[in-house]
């Protein structure tokens, strides 16, 4: 997190009454069965809120993708994976290492609780997030990286073909928790096998999530350090449990933290919600801020640098005027 952001959050904390630690009651994400494309686009998509879609036709993958089948289907092609000695993987502190394994070996290890062969420890956790042939240039597309498995999946076509961005194949060890982050594109999280618990936060609660780029510093959302993150208690928590065959719609900019309750396989499908030219052409992961947002942040940084020429009293006054100006011109008033 940038120094100025930290100072602003600390100022807000000092100016408010002390916040006692209290459990945040989670709002259950709505579950809807048998939603057609027409209903999704007409009634659900415009609301820009997460929803779990059940009863979707996903093809034979939900019953076919056993450990044995996965191991045989794509053979011994090498995959790059995350390996961690702790269940909570943190992208900011990089508490994991990257290793390479044949896919069939990786699948069997990821399905184990304790390992006879391992890199770091006998209870290490594994995570695969598929990437393109050249991760710096190519997007993830299950049809290209895992063509045999791709034939088993029927991706819900609730968006136009030209909007498609990527299809990210994921495999996680049981108990693995991934860092809280947001993406800049809409996506479906398709839970093919296993169970996942997903905790989400609205874009409007960004001030309480202690951001560093697209990621939150608050990794343990169930037991956060309230002395270190006192404002986190103000973030409204949404939650759902995904089982095999469930599809979670995650709108762009919604923060999400994913916990694998069991060994499982999932597929994320990202698509472009904004005009294609709005996105950074070098973005292969779907998590770089839109071009206009990046330019605005750069301009703001220059403005804040200019304010440093003033004495503290004046700097504080004009910074507050800038905040009021931003609220007046850019904040939405119709959040539900």
Automatic annotation (TrEMBL):
It is an enzyme of class 1 (oxidoreductase). It comes from the Eukaryota. Its cofactor is Fe(2+). Its EC number is 1.14.11.42. The keyword tRNA processing applies. SMART domains: JmjC. InterPro entries: Cupin_8 (IPR041667), JmjC_dom (IPR003347). Keywords: Dioxygenase, Iron, Metal-binding, Oxidoreductase, tRNA processing. GO terms for molecular function: metal ion binding; tRNA binding; tRNA(Phe) (7-(3-amino-3-carboxypropyl)wyosine37-C2)-hydroxylase activity. GO terms for biological process: wybutosine biosynthetic process. Pathway: tRNA modification; wybutosine-tRNA(Phe) biosynthesis. It catalyses: 7-[(3S)-3-amino-3-carboxypropyl]wyosine(37) in tRNA(Phe) + 2-oxoglutarate + O2 = 7-(2-hydroxy-3-amino-3-carboxypropyl)wyosine(37) in tRNA(Phe) + succinate + CO2. Residues 1-23 are annotated as: Disordered. Homodimer. Belongs to the TYW5 family. This is tRNA wybutosine-synthesizing protein 5. The lineage of its organism: Eukaryota, Metazoa, Chordata, Craniata, Vertebrata. The gene is TYW5.
